[in-house]
Design a protein that fits this description.
The protein has about 290 residues and is of the alpha/beta class. It contains nine helices and twelve strands. It has helices at about 10-20, 60-75, 120-130, 165-170, 185-195, 210-220, 225-230, 250-265, 275-280, and strands at about 5, 25-35, 45, 50, 80-85, 95-105, 110-115, 135-140, 155-160, 175-180, 200-205, 230. α5 (about 185-195) links the parallel β10 and β11 (about 200-205). It is elongated. Pfam families: XdhC_C, XdhC_CoxI.
Length: about 290
């Protein structure tokens, strides 16, 4: 198995991975019977390419890592229970039994691309900080990103030099917001974004007249009505009503609220916790044993 053991403790790794939105599994030893490498309460954290802390090593730990990575690969998020006989399934000489609770976390799956680091863009980034989104922030000005933003989790800042190159680098299903300081930049970005079929949504800041001007240019350049219909402009319009408060903070609030609705997709898999029989077995004196 290809993986690297890190010196970081499981609780430090758990905090960092959850903060940064990286998929991971927390493995907790919940029962033990007979001779076992470690006692209940031992924990380790597992990602696709790293492990943090240990449950005692050996084949049993290798099998735990394999099971955890299987959850990540198959996107089986939530709780599951693994049982190990250290003399049977795991082929170890301890001869005991352990139950391991796996808690698989999906990490951040929503990507928001913000083109423009002006007043509204800054407020959008601040308001989005507690939300489980990966933010990709672009601006063509060399001094656009204040130092305070460099420490914000799940935020990456990029220089916007070429619209085609920047848009091509976006992850599939990204939600894009176009609000640069330059109308020509805005237009180049909109034109490039509507050419990507896998962009989840496209929003443009500005007035109705700005969008009417863009729409006319797009028509003259041969873009279809369906492509142009993908653009929401102005962004943050609630119930098709214009907001009278035009401060950057107020606009950002409506934009983030709009994004919450756009990104609020139901989970593909419902996990309601452990099977009740497995829980009842854990509450007895005998550990759950492999079938």
């Amino acid at each position: 198995m290809s993986s690297s053991q890190h010196p970081e403790s499981w609780h430090a790794a758990l905090h960092r991975l959850q903060r940064d939105g990286i998929p991971h599994v927390l493995a907790t030893q919940v029962t033990s019977a007979g001779s076992t490498p470690r006692e209940p309460g031992a924990r380790m954290v597992i990602t696709d390419d790293a492990i943090f802390d240990t449950l005692g090593g050996g084949t049993f730990e290798w099998q735990t890592i394999t099971a955890a990575r299987g959850c990540l690969t198959e996107q089986r998020y939530g709780l599951s229970l693994e049982a190990f006989s250290l003399g049977g399934r795991s082929g170890q000489c301890c001869g005991g039994f352990v139950n391991i609770l796996l808690e698989a976390f999906p990490g951040t799956t929503t990507n928001i691309a913000i083109f423009g680091a002006g007043h509204v863009g800054q407020q959008i980034v601040k308001l989005s900080a507690p939300l489980p989104w990966q933010l990709h922030w672009y601006d063509s000005r060399s001094d656009a990103f204040a130092e305070q933003y460099q420490q914000q989790p799940r935020l990456s800042c990029y220089s916007l030099q070429d619209a085609q190159q920047s848009v091509a680098a976006l992850p599939a299903d990204s939600h894009a917001l176009v609000l640069t300081h330059n109308h020509d930049e805005d237009y180049a970005l909109i034109k490039t974004l509507i050419e990507r079929d896998d962009v989840a949504s496209i929003g443009l800041i500005g007035s109705d007249s700005k969008w009417a001007s863009f729409e006319g240019r797009l028509k003259r350049e041969g873009y279809s009505a369906d492509q142009m219909a993908r653009v929401r402009s102005p962004i943050g319009r609630i119930h098709d009503t214009k907001l009278s408060n035009k401060t950057p903070y107020a606009i950002a609030l409506t934009v983030v609220a709009e994004l919450l609705w756009l990104t609020d997709t139901p989970s593909s898999q419902e996990n309601r916790g452990l099977d009740s029989q497995a829980v009842r077995t854990l509450m007895t004196d005998s550990p759950t044993t492999p079938s």
